[in-house]
Amino acid sequence: MSLDNQHDDFAEENGYAKIDRYNSKKINKIAANYAEILSEIGENPQREGLLKTPERVAKALQFLTHGYDLDAAEVLRSAMFQEDYSQMVIVKDIEVYSMCEHHMLPFFGKAHIAYIPNGHIVGLSKIPRVVDIFARRLQVQERLTNEIRDCIQDTLKPAGVAVVMECKHMCMSMRGIQKQNSVTTTSAFTGQFIIEKTRSEFLRLIAANLA
Ligand SMILES: Nc1nc2c(ncn2[C@@H]2O[C@H](COP(=O)(O)OP(=O)(O)OP(=O)(O)O)[C@@H](O)[C@H]2O)c(=O)[nH]1
Ligand SMILES: [Zn+2]
What we know:
The chain is of the alpha+beta class. The protein has helices at 3-13, 24-40, 53-64, 72-77, 126-135, 141-156, 170-173, 196-207, and strands spanning 80-82, 89-100, 106-116, 120-122, 138-139, 160-169, 184-189. The chain has a 5-stranded mixed beta sheet with strand order 5-2-3-6-7. A two-stranded antiparallel ribbon has the order 1-4. Strand 2 (89-100) and strand 3 form a beta hairpin. Bound molecules: guanosine-5'-triphosphate and zinc ion. GO terms for molecular function: GTP binding; GTP cyclohydrolase I activity; zinc ion binding.
């Protein structure tokens, strides 16, 4: 499969068929800027290996920020089901890839999310989808954490939501302070998770190695 085809197939493979994935005007504009950047860093944008690089980077950037084109609440609403289940539901170890808004370098790690149903449950896959929709934007980890919490709380209206994220920031490892192993943890809670006992149960369960 050619590189172009791989990119073209991205939308469908990821269930994001309705994204206007290839706004070619946008791609061309971003690519032109990257050709200039290549020159500025002392490279020759005309050498063979770099000929298609500006276009590749433009497409990669569009992928890495495609969350702007998606509505996380709509995704949740598309798979809400009435169910008489009122115990904690936890989806843990969700891989997260985002980009910090300060340096546009990746930060990545895991999200652990729980909610306590209040009449409705949600299709399990929709929780990582919500994570991705907010992560695939320029972010800070704190806002990303809060946006996931608020979206689940406002849409599903459960008795409580808990979000914990643990991420490594490339802007702190490959440049700047250059700390290779530091991990940043953020958390956000609503409803019953504000109560110490419920929050402790959630934290104990995400720390446990049950599977
Ligand atoms: N709170 C928070 N800070 C972040 C996140 N991602 C990156 N940063 C920080 O954003 C800050 C930007 O600080 P500046 O002093 O303006 O930028 P800088 O000179 O490149 O800073 P250094 O990284 O310390 O070299 C840095 O301290 C980064 O570590 C994030 O998700 N949350
Ligand atoms: Zn950064």
